[in-house]
Amino acid sequence: MLKTLTGQIKEFKRASIATPLFMIGEVIVEMLIPLLMASIIDKGVETGDMNHILKTGALMLLLALIGLWTGIMGGKYGARASAGFAKNLREAMFDRIQTFSFSNIDKFSTPSLVTRLTTDVTNLQNAFQMILRMFTRAPASLIVAMIMVFSINVKLALVYLGAVIFLAVIVMNIMRRATKYFQQAFPKYDTLNESIQENVTGIRVVKAFVREDYETDKLRKASKAIYDIFVRAEKIITWNMPVMQFTMYTCILLVSWLGARMIVGSELTTGELMSLLTYCLNILMSLMMLSFVFVMISMSEASARRICEILDEESDLKNPENPVELVENGSITFEHVNFGYHKTSEEYVLQDINLSIRSGETVGIIGGTGSAKTSLVNMISRLYDVDEGSVKVGGRDVREYDMEALRNQVSVVLQKNVLFSGTILDNLRWGDLHATEEECRKACELACADEFIQAMPDGYNTWIEQGGSNVSGGQRQRLCIARALLKKPKVLILDDSTSAVDTATDARIRRAFLEEIPDTTKLIIAQRISSVQDADRIIVMDDGKVNAFDTHENLLKSNEIYREVYESQLRGSGDFDKMGGEK
Side-chain half-sphere of 354: how many Cα atoms within 13 Å? Predict the structure, then answer.
């Protein structure tokens, strides 16, 4: 874990090294000042030597200015190093997430990823800054002060040593008990963020069903869970300050009492006693700072583990050593394909799939909910890898291709249509970054989107809100289809992507595909038979298996499932989920 995290310091190594060096410089300066103060008292005030007082005072002022400068520089470089470390962590995590396959992403929820990129990184940033500054300054100050104390008087130094040992035992016990609560706390943020995300994303549904009170109560419970854990931890940590103060005042009393007796016995000077008391404060303040560092490290330990889970996660999908860059055509072949989302599952989601689709062919895919239609097409663009068998595109196994090259030639309009904040043109150019406005307009004409875009006040420069919340479901689907068409793919997959458009528009889109992109292999998943009946052939999926694969006419004659659904939809009362699979 430590190696993973320190690898993200990168270009901020110099700042990370400079910070503790400046902190040590500040400590050295601070430790010299009490000695000079003792010299002023013993050799200046008591002897009346004004010249010594002025010279030593000037030297103290100079050291104070040097200490101020080193402190400022330590803070400056510490802030630069910790902020840079956090920046690199976020970028590294985000980059790693982009490489994840769908199966990798399935391991982490969206709220969990958001928490790791925000709260957890902030915790590590604060901990790193404290380690660079306080964790360097406090031990250095403690060690130097102890050396100074022993050099002045060994007997009194033993009082400090006893106090240090006592406090170290108490603080370590407090930290050990508090750490277990901090480790429980941060995963709870996932639940909190999940509640917030669901509420904000589905606010229209919440209001439509008058569920504001329910959502508020759910958020309150998630927030209360975090509150309770932190209260338990803080109750333990609050013992830090009373114990520190008790020990500090006890030390001062003991040193003052013993020191006064030594002064009377001429074993100690007044200046030396003053410097010993100053070092006492330095030692105890160093211990207090160390306890704060341990608290922060305890809090950030759970965050560090969660971040490393992302950084150490290896994608299930990797390019071969010498990947194929060119997809020859849009032909698709499934050979004895078995696939399951969970490797421990007893049954496969896709079972012994054998298909051969010609390049340029239009193929409909129909089946009930849960029949694995989407799982089938996910294999083509290698969003998942098959467990057994092979999937070939353009005559080659998809595992032989460079994944970017393959996915550029297999364009998918997913079941859940997603648009991003930006103009319509910005969203369309996800398909082709360098597409001209004319090319974007042509793609929108094919997707029957140009008409409603032109009716908007700003046309193709109309701003799309996050998720496409300011356009209708049908408009969102057509924009996503146009975006996919701009890739000029050899294979186009529409995963129930026209469900929100009327049948007339659906027919116009399919006709445009037939006329304008005849060489592109088109796979159309649909619930309505009217959306696929004009396809060259139709796949009927049933419980993860290919029940039939033939033309519309032949399926009506030979396939009972297809015929029943067709007849029920013709009567206007049918649905594939109601009829499909009933044998």
Answer: 2
**Quick count: other Cβ atoms within 10 Å of Cβ 479?**
25
Residue pLDDT, tens place only, 321-363: 889 999 999 999 999 999 988 776 778 899 999 999 999 999 9
Q: Which long-range contacts (CB under 8 A, 24 or more apart) does 288-292 make?
A: 288/240, 288/241, 288/244, 289/134, 289/137, 289/138, 290/134, 290/135, 290/138, 290/139, 290/142, 290/171, 291/171, 291/174, 291/175, 291/240, 291/244, 292/130, 292/134
Q: Say what the pTM is.
A: 0.70
For residue 500 the two structure tokens come to 């929100």
Pairing of strands 362-367, 463-464: unpaired
At residue 338, the 3 state secondary structure works out as strand
CA-CA distance, 453 to 441, in Å (whole number)?
9
Axis-axis angle for helices 437-446, 503-516 (nearest 10): 120
How many other CB atoms are found less than 10 A from the CB of residue 143? 14
Q: Provide the pLDDT confidence category of residue 293 given band limits of 50, 70 and 90.
A: confident
Give the chain's radius of gyration (CA, Å).
35
Selection from 529, 430, 448, 445 nearest residue 484 by Cα: 430
How is residue 458 annotated by DSSP? T
Cα–Cα distance for residue pair 479/250, rounded to 1 Å? 75
Token match 């029920």: residue?
Answer: 568
Report the distance separating Cα 223 and Cα 553, nearest Å: 59
For residue 154, give both structure tokens: 């060994």
Tens digits of residue pLDDT in 451-506: 889 988 889 999 988 777 788 888 888 898 888 888 888 999 988 877 767 778 87
